Each structure stands twice: as C-alpha cells, then as structure tokens.
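fwd from M.: "can u put these together and see what the complex looks like"

so here's what she sent:
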Amino acid sequence: MRTLVWVLLVALLVAAVCLVVALFGLRLGREVADRRRETRHGEVRDVILTALMGEPDEAARARADLRTRSGRGWDEVEDQAFAMVPKIKGDSHDALVTLLLSKGAAAHASTLARSRSQVRRARGAHRLGALAQSDAVSLLLGLLHDHAFLVRRTAVRALGQVGDPIAVPPMLDAVTADPRLSRDVLAAIGRTGSAAAPMLRRELLRTLSEPVDNRRAALTAVGLGVLGDVSAAPLLTVSLEDRDQPGLAVASAEALGSLGAPESVEPLLRAMADADPDLRVAAARALGSVGDVRVAPRLAGSLRDRHHLTSRAVAGALLRLGDPGLLALRASPSPYAAEALAVHRVRHGG
Amino acid sequence: MARIVVADDDADIRDLVGFKLRQAGHDVETVEDGAAAVAAAQAVRPDLLILDVMMPGMGGLDATRALRLDPELARVPVILLTARAQESDIEQGFGAGADDYVVKPFSPRELASRVAAVLARSRA
C-alpha cells in the first residue's frame, strides 16, 4: 500500500514537472517566434523605407529586392506597405503604389474584397481604396450593400480615395439605407472634390422636384457646401425655401454659409423669420459666415428671439461681422450679446 | 546636423519621419507621446521638435505649451504634424506656440524641406 502511494506521488511530481517544462517551452517558443517576427518586420520596414526614400541607387536595389519576394515574405511587405500608403503623399506614395501594383496587389485586394470573412472584405476594400484604381469602383459599389457595417463604411472611404464621381449617387443611397454612414459619405464627397459637384447639383434638382429621403437631401446640400461649389448657390437658395422637406432648408443654409455667397444674404435673412428654430440657428450662423456687415442691424433684432439657441447663434454671427456686429451687440440688452462680448474680450483683450 | 525629437503615436509615421531626417544627416530621437517628447527635450536639448497634434495622453498642442513655459526650451522651434487641416486647427497650433505645421498625409520630401527652413530660421 505504501509503495503504491509513493508511486502515485512520484508520478504526480513527474507530471507536474513535465507540465512546467511544457509551459516553459511553449512560452519560450512564443517569445522566439515573436522576436523572429519583430526582426522580420524590422528588416522589411528598413527595405521599404529605403525603397521609398533612399538615395536613387540604394532605392532601386531595395525595390528590386522587394519585387523578388514571394509567399509569406511578400505578404509581410504588402501588410506594411498598405499600412503606410494612406499616411504619405508625393513621390514616396507613388513609388509605394507602383511597387504594390507591379506585384499584383490590386488583384489580391479584389480577392480579399470578395472573401466570405467580413474582416477580409473590409481589408480588401481598404486596400482597393489605398491603391485608388478606378477599375475597382464597381467592386466597391457592390460592397456598399454588404450586410456588415464595417465593410460598407470601409467601401465608402475607399470610394472617396478613388474619387470617381459616379460613386456619389450610390453613396447617397447608402446613407438612405444606413444613416450612420453620413459622416463618411460627406468626407468621401469632399475627397472626390469638384468632380462630384455636377452629380450633387443634379441630385439637388431632383430632390426639389420629387421629395426623397430627408437625410439624403440634407447631405446633398451640405455636400455642395463642403465642395465650395459656388455655382450651386442659386439652387441652394431655392432649396433653402423648400418647406416640404424638413432638414433640407437647414442643410441649405449651412451650405450657403460655407459658400459665402453674397446673393444668399436676403434669403437667409428671410429664413430668420421662419417658425423652425433649427433653420433660424442655421441661417444666423450662415449670415455670420457670409460676412456681409450690412446685415448687422437687421440681424441684431433676432437677439431677442424666443428660442435661446437662435439668440446665441445670432450673437456669435454678429461677433464674426467685426465692428458693425460689435456695435450692434453693445447696443443690445440681450444677455447673449453680453456673453458674446465677454468671449470677445477674452479672445482679444480690452 | 541637428538634434530632432519626433513624437507620434503611430509607429509608421515615426519610422517614416525618422528615416527621412536621419537620411538628411540629423540626429533623431522618436517617442510616442507629448509627455515623452517634453521629457526627451529636457534631456537632449534638441534643435527642433516635430509633434503630432493628436496623441494619447499629452497631445502636441499641450506639449508645445509646456515647452514654451520652460525657459530653457521656450525658443526651440516646433513643427506640428496634424491630420486636422481646418483653419481653426492651424490657428490653434500657432496660438500654442508652434512655428510651422505639416498636414497628414504628408510628403516626406516636403517635411524635410520645412525642417531645413525652420532650422535655418532659428539659427539666423
């Protein structure tokens, strides 16, 4: 019996020692693997940086070295290169994109974008955006209908990087389906630049004749402001007075403020008398942005607006109008005028 | 050659900026946040700092203000590296005491030119 107990004890001890050794071995193995990965990462990083920014001879050698890599060696290069592409511009950016394209990164990204895994689809969309090739647009447009929000959002961002105006209406459709994409779509429109303006003007015209989703309509108007499309000012003046679509008038006021169009002053002053307080706030801010100092006395009347946010917006707008605005604020008994003047004193002293 | 401290929480940016500046012959120290940048500046007395605006903990604007309060470092030029290109953001940067700013995504070559210009100005 005693022998059996001893045998069991020794067996347990041996098992415990084996377990400790195995755990130690695993940990050691993981550390070695991590260190190897870090070394490989650092080595690849150095070669990429040399390829991008090295002296001409060494850069050419580094690029040739990168082109010879394949399999997991190239995957490491691709991962690091795609992480860098969106962060730089100029010669280095172009050199990196050329290198990636020469190794078939666009095809690889397209394959990822069609993967069953949503993380891979998002990664594929991100890469297609980084490469900014126009032939990726149709694939990215398809991803706007993806069931995963992450993929839809990455696709919107990627379409902004590609900058093809044909993507503007589908992106607005995507906002109709999912309002969470509004900010990204607006940023993508901004990145697309003036090429997107004709599409947005057409959209706004359509919106005026046949009411569409409220958020979509508002985004169309704000988008024209973001693009600084001064030729859209007359159209935005019309949409400012559209009372059938709540939100469109407010967005139009914001856009007119961004444009700073002088012809929008009178319509914006009319909007100050509207029943919708959100519109009055937006109109006041826009008048401050347009900066026509002649409106100061008329705007000052709205310091007594029954809606406190409007009064505050008016006071802020008057501050932006310089001396005529300051005069109007000093003459007003409104607490919002006093508040604005206090802010002015903090900013400018005196 | 100048001593330059670069602070950015993004390792890619640190490597890109560090490589370009070392290539231009500068002695570069890279750190991950504003507090580390201030500490590094106090330790190495750099000729220039390049600070990212948005960093966890102390950002570039706060780090610039902290440097301007230190009599030994108040005159060290600062270039802000920022993804925020709005006029008000840039105004805020200059208000904090920065000497120049570079907007992300950035051109490494342009950054090197700005560094050369700021260093030349500070040495004049």
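replying to her w this: Residues 67 and 110 of chain B are 25 Å apart (CA to CA).
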